[in-house]
Amino acid sequence: MEDEQIAVFGIADPLSTRYGNTLAGQFVCGSKIALHAFRPITASTRDKPTDYAGKDPVKIHLLQPEFIFDDPILRSLIAEANSTFVALQSLKRKGSKADYTKISRTYRSIIRACLEKLQDAAGLAEEASKEHDMYQQYISIFYSIECVWHLSEILFLDQTPSNVIVPQLLEWVRFHFPAAERMATDLLLMGRDASDSEEYWPALKGLVLQGQVDVARAILQSHPQAESAAFKMTEQILKAMPTFNVYGGFSIQKFRSQWQYWLTDTERKLTANILAVEPNLEELVQLIIGDTQTWNAHIDNSDYWYEYLPGYLFYTNPACKHFELGTAANSWLDRWARMKTQQGKEPQLKHLDKVILSLMENDMHQVIHAIQLMADNQWFVTHLTDLLYNCGQLQVVGEHQMNDCIKLRDSLLYEFGSNLMTRNSLWQLGMDYLQFCSEEGLAALELCLTKIPIKTEKQAMKILEICRKMNFPNAEQEICKVQAKQSLDDERYGNALEWAIRSKDTLYVTSIADFLLKHYAKTGDMLCPDIIANIGAKMFISPRLVFLVKYFDFYQFYRKRDFLPAAELLVNLLDSKITPEYFWPSLLIDTIPLLESKDPKILSKETTAILHHLESELVPLIEKKKKRLEKFPDEPVNILKDYRIENIEEIINLLRLACARNLSRALIIENTLMA
Amino acid sequence: MFEVESIIVDHKDVIHDVVFDYYGRRMATCSSDQTVKIWDENEQGEWAVTSSWKAHSGSIWRVSWAHPEFGQVLATCSFDRTASVWEEVLGEKVGGTMTPARRWVKRTILVDSRTSVTDVEFAPKYLGLLLATASADGVIRIYEAPDIMNLSQWSVQHEITNKLPLSCLSWNTSMYMLSSQLLAAGSDETATATGKVFIFAYSENARKCVKVDTINDITDPVTDLAFAPNAGRSFHMLAVASKDLYIVNIRGTSDATGTSKLDIQTVKHTDHNCPVWRVCWNMFATMLISTGDDGCVRIWRMNYSKKWKCAAELKADGSGPSYEPTLNSPSLPSSAATTAKYYKKGIISNPNQVPWH
């Protein structure tokens, strides 16, 4: 690979000049870049304010590569092309030639429709306004794209069986240089008066230059002097002109000899000055016989090197095949350039001119390279390469000769898709491109989905739906967790819990359940009761959540003064072994009122159980903490954080007492009843 | 061609780090003026500062955002030998209807280092809420917040002592294969000609983080390094800013006995032709930015055959207010390169000359 010129851009930043013009760059997201003046420091640099501190303004420059698809007209182009792209992928490279030609035409008609809309928009915009210039620029971009696409379709997709291309090339120039045809239509409508028009002869010459001999003849017939000798002679010559037709049954040899015969005859007539009375007619015939002088004269007036090439081939080499086109194009281009130089004009090839030459030369590498520079954010190169790849016409031989086509196509799709994905409004279109390009594309898609800034719950649901469809469980989980955390930060606890549950991440659910339980233990206030009440079977995702839900049930019974089931639930909870350490004091304290109730709510067996839990769970815990406290007096002790040590001891004593009293009451009643 | 928006950031001295959050909608800046500023982008794409506070008593080297699933959390490290963790919280409600202001509170201050803390970075989220610091005395510390709802408690999980002073570190965010729990660190020591980039991994056997490799190809002082984000690649890429720019490809392989080792391949890019200070990947690892001492910021692109090439240069231009390209003459080389000219504006140099009939 050769060295290429690298684009250099200047950024004005006075501060950076203080540090040898050093700027540092960072990516923001997508291809956005942030730059700022940079002063290298190391650990041995003395840390003091710099000499320029507070003098020059400190700036950050945010650079965004131009992106054209935010414009509504181009947006619709990209959206329509996207559905065509998806249709193309669904053929799975097994479509027929007709299928691919149809797809190509669909793409082209999308571009055409877009160009018309752009024309209208440019027409409505004020002349010389920024908007007007912008639309003009888009028009020129997409015009070039249309032109190249059309030629690519002729050369690679819609080939004739015999590989003869001149008729299609004629169609191509007629489409892109329609002036002659337009004039001809007007003239035909004018009938007899046509010859008075200033456009009469220019139109005829234009038609002949584009190989439209039949139309030219029809217009000649409308001339008032059509019956004169010169006109009759011209008509005769044109009528007799043999045309090469692939399907005509003639062999090329036979055609050539016919042509030669006709040519000699016509040349003889011209030398005999038969048409000298009508120089215009003479010129027409001279064009048809490929007269160098006459063609050269027209070259002088042409702005585009390829404008008259198909016409010239039509008269001089009508059976030209695709593989011969490169040579023909180059010799024509040389001639064109020579004429231009003689004229004193610098023959300058513009970008589009070069792309067309490369296409005719069948130099796909160069074509693909060149069409990346179309300022269309790679729309064209991506779609065209993909189309050629799909129909098996992409021939790019890379360094290792193999497999480069798919790599090239994939990398273009990857690039284009990921660029769209990082655009707020276009990410859904971008998805399709990433989906169809290798595993890296899918991984990038998953990454992109998590990076879409989510503003509403609805939007989050939509993205989750996509993740589920695409089978991206990690992305799904991540999005849910971010939503959970955000809700928690905003003190929307119910939301946070719901999102955590949706994330299916046990640890995360546990930490939020912990948060709610700790809050309750601290304040006695149960956050988001409605949500907890409706969790249902989803609670089994985390033992801590089960505890929370069950505890909440107890809390509800208790509040409704439904003491019997409350007591039962509480005892169950004590037995359950899912009680978090920090919640033991709280849970046991909850038992005190039930134990102290005048009519016993807790049976003797359960009371013993409570006593057992007290002695075997809470007391050892406290002993442990005490010991630790003696050892590290400065360290905060978590579990007892909200209970001072002397309070805890008081609580324990109260509990023991309550248990003893309840036990006695319960025993009495139980035994009385049994008796 | 770029659209450029310049913000005057109101720091009193040079900025050392500008870091964007996970979505690219928030920006944290830190400076020699010992402050940190937080910026938010509004719907119109305008950036405005929403918080600013004095965070350290020395120049602040670096900032790092935690993954948003841990909340709005930031870490900073400074010349003052400390690193801090900050969290944005809902402030007290002011007035009845006003939305409460958000503010940043210091959750912890990590004072274990005896020298300047030169880099700080949160670990990839799948490892939990972990934070690594590198310091000038060569120590890497990995802290963990065991309770993600309580950011005031951080404990040192690993402490790795190196012989050379450290200037930078980077976590590998990839979850690909076991080789992924890698952390790389670089040294800017100038005296010895030994390898300056070290790679660490968690060893199940030793139950601690250990150095698993040194990249011996890079012996010049290293000022920055960064693992590339990994979307679907089967190998890791590490960009290293040293005397030149290096792109290191790392593959985890395991031999017949099942012991895994690293296959390291280093590619040097000499375009800057002078020391490189900083490196930064884009989110897909298809582009890389390098900051050089030659006053150039270079943008690198990976082409379809995974080769890196410089695609554009950004230069500081102190004189004029112009953002126009100083040199933008398109050339169509005959080469078969397909490196995209992403940043170059349409090469239809004068659009009006393109035919439109």
UniProtKB/TrEMBL annotation, chain A:
GO cellular component, one term: nuclear membrane
Domain of life: Eukaryota
GO molecular function, one term: structural constituent of nuclear pore
Keyword annotations: Membrane, mRNA transport, Nuclear pore complex, Nucleus, Protein transport, Translocation, Transport
Major site of localization recorded for this protein: nucleus
Locations listed in the record: Nucleus, Nuclear pore complex
Any one biological process term the GO annotation gives: protein import into nucleus
Family: Belongs to the nucleoporin Nup85 family.
PANTHER family: FROUNT PROTEIN-RELATED, NUCLEAR PORE COMPLEX PROTEIN NUP85
Job of this protein: Functions as a component of the nuclear pore complex (NPC).
Known partners and oligomeric status: Component of the nuclear pore complex (NPC).
Protein name: Nuclear pore complex protein Nup85
Higher taxonomy: Eukaryota, Metazoa, Ecdysozoa, Arthropoda, Hexapoda
From TrEMBL, chain B:
Subcellular localization, as worded in the UniProt entry: Lysosome; Nucleus envelope
Matching PROSITE patterns: WD_REPEATS_2 (PS50082), WD_REPEATS_REGION (PS50294)
One GO term of the biological process aspect: cell division
GO molecular function: structural molecule activity
Major place of residence: other
SUPFAM superfamilies with a match to the protein in the record: WD40 repeat-like
Superkingdom of source: Eukaryota
Annotated WD repeat ranges: 8-40, 269-303
UniProt keyword annotations, A-Z: Cell cycle, Cell division, Lysosome, Mitosis, Nucleus, Protein transport, Repeat, Transport, WD repeat
Annotated SMART domains: WD40 (SM00320)
Gene Ontology terms: cellular component: lysosome; nuclear pore outer ring; Seh1-associated complex
PANTHER family tied to this protein: NUCLEAR PORE COMPLEX PROTEIN SEC13 / SEH1 FAMILY MEMBER, NUCLEOPORIN SEH1
Family: Belongs to the WD repeat SEC13 family.
Record-given protein name: Nucleoporin SEH1
Gene: 101893640
